Amino acid sequence: MVICCAAVNCSNRQGKGEKRAVSFHRFPLKDSKRLLQWLKAVQRDNWTPTKYSFLCSEHFTKDSFSRRLEDQHRLLKPTAVPSIFHLAEKRGVTGHGSTRRKERNKAPGAVKGRAGASLSSNEDPAAKLEPKKPKQVTGREAASARADLECLGPAQGQASLERPLGDSGAAARPGTQCEADALDEQEEKSSMSVDDFSPPGSGPCRFIGSLHSYSFSSRHSRERPPAPKEPGDRKRPRRDVEPSASSSSPGPDKGSAHSPPSSSLTATPQKSSPSPSAPPADVTPQPAAEAVPSAMSINEVILSASGACRLIDSLHSYCFSSRPSKSQVCCLREQVEKKNGELKSLRQRVSRSDSQLRKLREKLDELQRASSPHLNGLLLPSSEPPTMNPVLEPLSWMLGTWLSDPPGAGTFPTLQPFQYLEEVHISHVGQPMLNFSFNAFHPDTKKPMHRECGFIRLQPDTNKVAFVSAQNTGLVEVEEGEVNGHELSIASHSIARISFAKEPHVEQITRKFRLNSEGKLEQTVSMATSTQPMTQHLHITYRKVTP
Ligand code: HEM
């Protein structure tokens, strides 16, 4: 890879200054802020850096570099901005690198000079060239274009099409200063994409148009003789790089893409690319001094132009073929925008519903307050829960909502064993008592079964507990007992029932509540009826579902 420095009046190129260990560094194309700083420092008019534009290390202060630990290679710091330039020297119309090119144009067979003179600008095709108006560029623009393109030898041009740029430098020049470039590339994470060769909008067309203008100008400047078949052309070593468009090349003129005669202008569509979005080509004029060892004949030059023209056509066809995908992208973008719009309106609707809901709640609260103005404190849950009466402390472990887990087990000598589900609420409202409700359900049908509710009181300053319960079976009972730690044991003190209560009547009841080591609440109920002695009727374990 031959790399030139893009700085005005700097003739450093890779290979030339090896002894001075000059390194070359890509423009930070992906870091717009830094790129502006670089461009300001470089002070090149009407010039846009490309991926193939480099600055050599001589434009950076020493502290712009760091050393890679493993091999001590010089690395440009990611914040580095060039500051050392010799702008006052020959800053003529041709601008950057004019001396260098003059020298090259003097070289024998300097076809490059002619080609370059009419070659349209290679300034960033995305940014500068107009579609359908291939403009004849100024000498300065052409020089700028050549300056970058000349720096890429044919091998590099080909390599750059065949693999990501990050690979190319390191692969081509292992162990050389160019590894620093490769590292720079990695730092910028630049990999080749369609955009590299097909800039947004009509950039590619404009670029190709500019190539056409080169081609036409070559043709019209001379009378075109009959195209001779010169087999020797192909054998000419290193003068030309055969266009490598294969049968899978996107261009319609595949045959012609294969057979242009030698040319110092090398248009190289990418080798059979598996992807339809693969970049079409790079255009890489070769340095005349290196690539053209002997003068070319007029015929050769014209044939070159003709070959280039056909390749340019194939580039055009690539360009057209990429348009549908662009329109697809546009279409997708429209869809995304549409969906975003829908999402926005949905969000607005949700937020409207939220505010309506809030208003309805407020209205309901108002109605409730109006209907029972004296019970608000009990009926309406205030935002803060009531403070628990300290008397309840010994029973506080019973507080909460509990769900049977697993289902409760019912037994009695006169009954078939059964299972049931139960939901338990034990709460307080700041008074010195617990409120409870036990609601049993059939495990399969979920139908309500046994229900009871009541209060649990503690005699102040004792562990004596009274349990008062009303059951849906028509039983009303009082049980008393003691709380010890996390265990409450009570037994029936008095039992009353409705006159038509079902028989056999319960005559004695004992219960035990305990909080087990897993934090679960357990209840065991035993009873004696008019027909059966004290026997266990229920055993159930609950897990807590709320505080
Ligand atoms: C302390 C509370 C309870 C008492 C005092 C109580 C009392 C009784 C009595 C006296 C019987 C009649 C026994 C017999 O026929 O020999 C009975 C039956 C029964 N109990 Fe309970 N029971 C209580 C809680 C529950 C609970 C929580 C369930 C759960 C679903 C339940 C389910 C049943 C069933 C399914 C029967 C048999 C059918 C029936 O007679 O309705 N009991 N219970």
Automatic annotation (TrEMBL):
Domain THAP-type: 1-85
Keywords recorded for this protein, A-Z: Coiled coil, DNA-binding, Metal-binding, Zinc, Zinc-finger
Enzymatic reactions: peroxynitrite = nitrate
CDD domains, sorted: lipocalin_heme-bd-THAP4-like
PROSITE patterns hit by this protein: ZF_THAP
InterPro entries: Calycin (IPR012674), Nitrobindin (IPR045165), THAP4-like_heme-bd (IPR014878), THAP_Znf (IPR006612), THAP_Znf_sf (IPR038441)
UniProt feature, compositional bias: Polar residues: 259-271
Name recorded for this polypeptide: THAP domain-containing protein 4
